[in-house]
Specification:
By secondary structure, this protein is an alpha/beta fold. It is built from ten helices and twelve strands. The protein has helices at 39-51, 79-90, 121-138, 152-162, 183-189, 209-221, 235-245, 255-266, 272-286, 296-306, and strands spanning 12-18, 25-27, 35-37, 56-61, 95-100, 114-115, 118-119, 142-145, 170-176, 225-229, 249-253, 290-293. The chain has an eight-stranded parallel β-barrel with strand order 1-4-5-8-9-10-11-12, surrounded by nine helices. Strands 6-7 form a two-stranded antiparallel sheet. Bound molecules: zinc ion. Zinc ion binds at residues 101, 103, 111, 146-147.
Amino acid sequence: MIRETVLTKNDLIYPLFVVPGKNIRNPVKSMPGVFQFSIDNLVKECKEVRDLGIPAVILFGIPEHKDEVGSEAYASDGIVQKAIRAIKKEVNNLLIITDVCMCEYTSHGHCGVLSGEEILNDETIALLAKEAVSHVEAGADMVASSDMMDGRVLAIRKALDDKGYTKIPIMSYAAKYASGYYGPFRDAAESTPTFGDRRSHQMDTGNINEALREVEADIEEGADIVMVKPAGPYLDVIRKVKEKFGMPTAAYQVSGEYSMIKAAGMNGWIDEERVMIESLTAIKRAGADMILTYFAKDAAKWIDKNRK
Ligand SMILES: [Zn+2]
């Protein structure tokens, strides 16, 4: 009765990785319990997620071909576009969010188009807008821009509105830190840059005022939900963002946070279930309204088991 923060299934968003092919369920080595799915298996997984009572998934695509300008990111028959159509055909009552970025689709693994070794901001946001529109045309319920280019939320908002998709919300990765915790994700999404890193556009760990400026800019550009990423090491940022802006606030418990808990749990060094629920509850307590987490299915099962 006196507990202030209670984790519920409604707080959870489950990230999923989709690859070309049939009957594929590739384990991601550095993320035990996480798989890359071909579309047929992805549809089955989405049914299971829906049946567990998790309200939403976010899709990341691994394309057949990568090129300099990430063409498959905005192709109408791209991997994510095909996946959305397949899920929408067979699974109701599941919100589909899509990741809008270029790094899974470019041959160099950077989040935009390059000139030499530099990412061209404005050329990139035009492509991101195209990518977002193609996802929504395929049936996506929400788009999530993860690239951290300047001005991309506004560009996506305008592009969606121009096509009549005025009611499709944008979740913006507003305060995304250049973080070592992303390591395992790059195995899952096959998006490691071939040179350099993402420090030109992602944020420095030591900065919180900058995070607030980034969030404010995204809200002004039309973001409906703002995200802090990673979650656990940045609980103070989540709290400040929530207090200052009062916006629907998402937090991404990233691959490294997941894998550390999994690995220690598998070794018997910690009680995995207990630490999982503790970590998610802490993120919610900090101010997150929704949590993107690879633990979503495990947490939903735990809630079923423990809250009857
Ligand atoms: Zn990216």
